[in-house]
Amino acid sequence: MPRFRWLVIGICILAVSTHPLVAQSVSPSSTPLPQEGVFLVFQFENTSPNARLDWIGEGLEELTIQRLSAAGQQVYSHAGRLGEMDRSGIPPSGKLSRATMLHIGQEMDADYIVFGTYSSNGKTLTVTARLLRVNPVALLPVVVETESLSSLMELHTKLVWKLLGTCDHGYSLNLAEFSKLQKPLSLAAFEQYIRGLLANDDETRLRDLKEAARLEPDWPEPAFALGEVYFQRNDCASSLTWYARVPPSHARKAEATFAMGVCRLRLGQSDKAEEIFSALEEDLQRNLMTGADLPEILNNLAIARARQDDFPPAMTALGRARDIDPDEDDYPFNLGLLALQQKDLPAAETHFAEAVDREPNNAEDLAFLIYTLDKAGKKAEAKEKREAAADAFGEKGLPLLKLDSKSTTSFSKYQRVKSELDITSLRLELEGPQIQQSASSESAAPANPAVVHIRRGRQEVRAGRLDEAEKEFRAALSTEPTNASAHRELGEIYRRRDKLDDAARELQLSLESRDSAAVRTTLARVYIEQKKYDLARAEAEKAIKLAPNYSEAKELLDHLEKSKPTGGNR
């Protein structure tokens, strides 16, 4: 799976058809907005003793993300930052050193890191902010603004504008031009919105977000957040209402639309779900230069079609999703279900076996493989798998399957619907045309050549063009031979091609340049495929030492401990 889930961009995410539930294109400005790079924003630190103002720290982070996004910059979201911190074993709260922020920025391939502090004497607010350039590393000049507490919104607009002006080449928009790009917001609505995001329980969160929406009815952020809360509660009627208020030009409209499709599946409205997912998929193919697919959309589109007994296109879509994401077991599992439903036992066996191979710790994958072997009359193989399952999961560790070959519902309840859309690669793909548009501008950012090649390579990976992706990563290494990200990406490509020795070498080279729990976990998986179990266990242990809360590393080590494979290190 792609490693970074939430990258916000200020320019419309999808240029799409006239379908009412899908984002529509926005006519580009005759003068492209200047782009400085990809930003990663950290929570601002409260240096005053007034704890009642702690909400401002996350508020300034969120507001900075929104201001940069509105001005056409690419920005990682709060959720994206927390995800990488979790992978790095860093607690979500607490003061971070510049070295730690730089490490996270390097892992996420950001160009600039934004951090700062604020303090208040009860009447005025002083905010200090800086940019930390990631490559080459440089701390850019400090920016300070002081205003009354009631003028926080105006203060912040000026602060972010000045912050962009500290980039090496300077920022071409004047304050008036920059301000026109920003949506006017009342401080009261913004405070309610942030307090809603920070709330510890759903009822408080809903109350505060609804108040923010009431105070600023045309502001889409509270509407999207409310849709998310109701979506997580499986209250699809309420979720659909709030998601529908997210406008077509909003950066997260694609996510809102995807969630609406999931809701239609949950409500048993397969035809409406198919319409939504089909429109999203068609628009990706029509409007992106790379012709990329997103496996989550393909998966859910396939399920919507299968529930209407339209099996051939469902199988095609799922097959494409399986090929795009070689680590995810849900796609071959869903393929197995469809084959089983059509009484194609050999195909079902193949798909379930692949799912088990991708995710050995998933008891349901194994249960369906055993069920299929029994149905196919392969009693000896089924018995062998059942005994292995007892060792791995316990005597009653496999779920009891209740299937009726004549009932579509009995199969539908096992289908794995994707509930989150990863549009990181989609957003990065839009970067190419925008860079081309602004290339002639004197204000265009001088991009790091290695980073440019890495981002293009990731686009090619998403589009399934591994040969082109490899060329881009090789080009990155020709300009920066020790680039950890390029070596990591090459390692992933070689792993997908079953060139395991090459994959291990590239991942080791990545670790020589920059230690990473995620890379060590990937290397451990390569060693498992090579049956070098002791080396795999050592890498998993090192990953957990680096990031004690990294769930993938813990799950992998747990699997190795349960199965107790040894040796094979030569």
Number of strands: 8
Largest sheet: 8 strands, mixed
Shape: globular
Provide the gyration radius in Å. 25 Å
The secondary structure category is alpha/beta
Low-confidence stretches: 1-30, 427-446
What is the mean predicted local confidence, pLDDT?
A: 85
How much β-strand is present in the residues?
5-15%
Given the structure, what is the number of helices? 27
- Assembly state (oligomeric): single chain
Helix content: 55-70%
Number of domains: 3
For CATH, the homologous superfamily of the largest domain is named as ABC-type transport auxiliary lipoprotein component
- At the fold tier of CATH, the topology name of the largest domain is Rossmann fold
CATH class of the largest domain equals: Alpha Beta
Distance from first to last alpha carbon = 29 Å
Name the CATH architecture of the largest domain.
3-Layer(aba) Sandwich
Q: Could you characterize the architecture of this molecule?
A:
This protein is an alpha/beta fold and 570 residues long. The protein folds into three domains: 147 residues, ABC-type transport auxiliary lipoprotein component (Rossmann fold); 118 residues, Tetratricopeptide repeat domain (Serine Threonine Protein Phosphatase 5, Tetratricopeptide repeat, Alpha Horseshoe); 140 residues, Tetratricopeptide repeat domain (Serine Threonine Protein Phosphatase 5, Tetratricopeptide repeat, Alpha Horseshoe), CATH 1.25.40. Helix content is 58%, strand content 7%. The chain contains 27 helices and eight strands. Strands 1, 2, 3, 4, 5, 6, 7 and 8 form an eight-stranded mixed sheet that branches. Helix 14 packs antiparallel against helix 15. It is globular, with a radius of gyration of 25 Å. It starts with 6 loop residues before the first strand and ends in a 7-residue tail after the last helix.
